[in-house]
Amino acid sequence: MENMTIHPGPFNKELLFLETSHRAYNMFYGDSNPEETLDLRRGDRELWKHIKAGFEGVFNCGFKPLDHSLITALVERWRPETHTFHLPIGEVTVTLQDVHLMWDLRIDGEVVTGCQRTWSLAEKIETCYRLLGIETEQGNFRGAQLKMPFLRTVLETTLSDNATNEQCMQRARAYILLLLGGSIFPDGADNSVHMNLLVLLEDFDRCGGLSWGSAALACLYRNLCKGATNDKIIAGPLMLLQLWAWSRIRATGPKYDGHALQRPFVCVFMAIESIYGSWASNFEVLPRYIHALETSNPNTVVVWSHDPNSSSNIKTFKYVFWAFGPAIEAFAYCIPVICVDGTHLKGSYKGKLLTAVTKDANNHILPLAYAIVDEETQLRWYVANNNSRELCVISDRHKGILNAMSTLDEWKEPIAYH
Predict the structure, then answer these.
(1) Which of 46, 244, 325, 365 has the fewest beta carbons under 10 Å from its own?
(2) Known InterPro entries for this protein (predicted)?
(3) DSSP string, 222-284
């Protein structure tokens, strides 16, 4: 076949006037090898070693200061006999599921374990050089543990752009080792990490299959049991404990605004929102939900109220009260006692959820009515209780209830006693 000559272009050099300095020019007119690829540089190779080894979740949580008062209060309520916190509401504890949700650590797979071997100085120096690529001496160790201040000093040096894959893996091991010694398995001195953990990082594929979550939980339990004595120092994965408290005891944690918290801790709240919906979406469907209750439950009583200053197209929610028809009918066969109480809604729109309950002939709790309001004012309590007669009312003596009892005929003695 006759050789064909292809013009490399450009035909018009008014716009593309840098032709001679372009790499394509050397490909056609020079001696460059067209099969030679570019040397690609990237700075995230170390990061992906974290992910492959199974520590992405802990890495993404970032640094958060520990709440000393919260941790101390929890330790004071920890019982080593049951491995649970004894609270007024009952017993609670951190579970494997919590570890997986908070830190995204694996909770199945091979057990994280190792023999308490005796490390010679030569073995420690050789292992650190082989797995971390750093030169150590006797002063960098404390027994079988590597001092983390020295390790942090090494990591302050910048990794070369021409670093090999092995050098990147060594740097990743150093980062993970700091993570293990500083967040997951910190010791009482808070300045060293055991050499046995470094050995487990030799093979990243095997490391990613280890049950680090189980080991973290066991370490937390052990340190809580030690801290429950008269020790003044507690170690272990305390950040995990704090994240658990923030999630399970919401009053102790920061307010979630959808952006402030990082993965994977934020995934807990995102999962809740995915399952139950956001506050905005729930308030949007509230009218349809209440209408469905009315149509599917005959004799159900519903009272709506909107802000009188709201526009005709968009009604601003003020309060809603509802009592199921079957509950109203069943009240005729219950003891004439009503317990009225409310709780603050912690979501974006605040407000309060009010409930009224009684007891049936079998001494079981029977819910009577519910209300979602902005404040426990006299009007709201009147709407929620204006059908009550010859009753004994039990409450926390909130100002709104007292006003209703003193001003409304339906609440005055001898019809109702408070």
Answers:
(1) 365
(2) AminoTfrase-like_pln_mobile (IPR019557), MAIN-like (IPR044824), MULE_transposase_dom (IPR018289)
(3) HHHHHHTTT-S---S-HHHHHHHHHHHSGGGSPPP-SSSSPTTHHHHHHHHHHHH--HHHHHH
Q: What is the pLDDT of residues 55-89, one digit of tens each?
A: 766 766 666 778 888 888 888 888 888 888 988 88
Query: Cα-flanking dihedrals φ and ψ of residue 145, to 5°?
Result: -120, 145
∠370-373-375 over CA atoms, to 5°?
Answer: 130
Task: Please report which helix (H) or strand (E) contains residue 28, including its range.
Answer: helix 23-29
**352-359/301-306 β-pairing:** unpaired
Asked whether the bond before 367 is cis by omega within 30 degrees of 0, the reply is no
The candidate with the shortest Cα–Cα distance to 80, out of 221, 218, 215, is: 221
Other beta carbons less than 10 A from residue 106's beta carbon: 21
Cα separations in angstroms, 152 against 41, 189, 216, 234, 414: 25, 16, 22, 23, 77
List beta partners, residue 369.
Answer: 356
What's the CA gap between 27 and 33, in Å, rounded?
Answer: 7
Give the Cα separation of 111 and 107 in Å (integer): 9
99 three-class SS: helix
**Is the Cβ–Cβ distance between 22 and 15 less than 8 Å?**
no
| Overall pTM > 0.90 | no
CB 174 within 8 A of CB 140: no
**Cβ(340)–Cβ(365) under 8 Å?**
no
CB under 8 Å to 146, separation ≥6 — which residues?
Answer: 124, 128, 136, 140, 177, 192, 193, 194, 195, 198
Give rounded-to-5 percent helix, strand, coil for the chain: 45, 15, 40
Q: Tokens standing for 79? A: 């019982």
Find tokens 């974290």 and name the residue. 50
The encoded tokens of residue 25 equal: 């020019």
Neighbouring CB atoms inside 10 A of 141's CB total: 19
Type of residue numbered 266: V
Name the phi and psi angles at 18, rounded to 5.
-100, 35
* Token pair 């893996």 in the structure block, residue: 169
Dmax over Cα atoms in the chain, in whole Å?
115
Q: Is 380 helix (H, G, I), strand (E, B) or coil?
A: helix
Side-by-side strand order, sheet with 90-92: 78-79, 84-87, 90-92
pLDDT digits over 1-58, tens only?
A: 455 566 666 677 776 666 676 656 666 676 666 555 444 333 334 444 554 566 766 7
